[in-house]
């Protein structure tokens, strides 16, 4: 269930800060990995009075100050989100993200079925704006973007994919599924056919090599409730990873 469904669009920062503490997947002295709920924006705006950034003070977890965002997820994408607990951690995570060594894996349920079992989408992206808003489009003159993907299962109409973005462009996975594979993500209101369904995109796993002399931090987020039925129909819990 999304934030909007749970809170009726009227939850206060204090209400959500308490609930978010229960969604911490990993915590040490440097970083927190949060299972961000679908429907919760990470940044505020004129039409976004309730947002994660405004709740971070409630996630001190014993520290003198609240954590800060080390990266972002789209409002309707659920799953692993890294928060830095102090300035040095924020700088270090910024360098790690910038060098591309933090590995991110997503799960998606898409409409249709790719012909191959796995592959690579290499499609440059550019942002366009008009009266209806903005979106990302495929454009050879845009910013380079690469996504690796693998098909885990399908039910004949929809497919469960694992996707590993090799770059961090806005809406990259959503555009690459829709335009690169011809299989838009279920519930995507911009690049697919939403039909009143929530976005079926989940940040499943993060691998963070925070220290050079220690094993990387690996965190996995359970699928959100709104994706369970579709994942099971495509074989999750039967033929795939739990």
Short description:
Helices cover 19% and strands 31% of the residues. The chain has helices at 3-7, 13-21, 87-99, 172-180, 225-233, and strands spanning 24-27, 31-36, 68-69, 78-84, 103-111, 118-122, 125-130, 133-138, 146-154, 158-165, 201-208, 217-220.
Give an account of the 3D structure:
- By secondary structure, the protein is of the alpha+beta class.
- The protein folds into 2 domains: 1-99, Pseudouridine synthase (2-Layer Sandwich); 102-242, Pseudouridine synthase (2-Layer Sandwich).
- It is 19% helix and 31% strand.
- The strands form 2 sheets. Strands 1, 2, 3, 4, 5, 6, 9, 10, 11 and 12 form a 10-stranded mixed beta sheet that branches.
- A hairpin with a 3-residue loop joins β9 and β10 (158-165).
- The two termini are 20 Å apart.
Q: Could you give a short account of the major beta sheet?
A: 10 strands, mixed
CATH-derived topology of the largest domain: Pseudouridine synthase
Which superfamily, in CATH terms, is the homologous superfamily of the largest domain?
Pseudouridine synthase
Shape assignment: globular
Q: How many β-strand runs?
A: 12
Structural class: alpha+beta
SSE series: HHEEEEHEEEEEEHEEH
**Alpha-carbon distance between the two ends:** 20 Å
Mean pLDDT: 91
**The top level CATH class name of the largest domain:** Alpha Beta
Rg calc: 18 Å
Percentage of residues in strands: 25-35%
What percentage of residues falls in helices of 4 or more residues?
Answer: 10-25%
Number of spatially distinct domains:
2
CATH architecture of the largest domain: 2-Layer Sandwich
Unreliable runs, pLDDT <50, ≥5 residues? Answer: 1-10
Number of helices: 5
């Amino acid at each position: 269930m999304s934030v909007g469904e749970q809170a009726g669009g009227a939850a206060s920062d204090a209400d959500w800060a308490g609930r978010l503490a229960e969604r911490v997947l990993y915590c040490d002295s440097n970083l927190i990995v949060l299972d961000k709920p679908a429907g919760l924006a990470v940044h505020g705006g004129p039409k976004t009075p309730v947002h994660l950034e405004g709740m971070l003070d409630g996630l001190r977890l014993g520290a003198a100050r609240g954590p800060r965002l080390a990266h972002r997820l789209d409002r309707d994408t659920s799953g692993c989100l890294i928060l830095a607990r102090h300035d040095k951690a924020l700088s270090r995570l910024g360098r790690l993200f910038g060098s591309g060594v933090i590995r991110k894996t997503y799960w998606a349920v898409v409409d249709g079925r790719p012909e191959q079992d796995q592959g690579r989408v290499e499609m440059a992206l550019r942002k366009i704006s008009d009266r209806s808003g903005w979106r990302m489009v495929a454009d050879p003159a845009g910013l380079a973007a690469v996504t690796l993907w693998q098909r885990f299962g399908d039910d004949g109409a929809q497919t469960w994919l694992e996707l590993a973005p090799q770059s961090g462009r806005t809406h990259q996975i959503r555009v690459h599924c829709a335009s690169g594979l011809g299989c838009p993500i279920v519930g995507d209101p911009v690049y697919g056919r939403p039909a009143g369904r929530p976005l079926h995109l989940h940040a499943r796993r993060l691998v963070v090599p925070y220290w050079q002399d220690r094993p990387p931090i690996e965190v996995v987020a359970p699928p959100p409730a709104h994706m369970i039925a579709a994942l099971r129909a495509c074989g999750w819990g039967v033929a795939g990873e739990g």
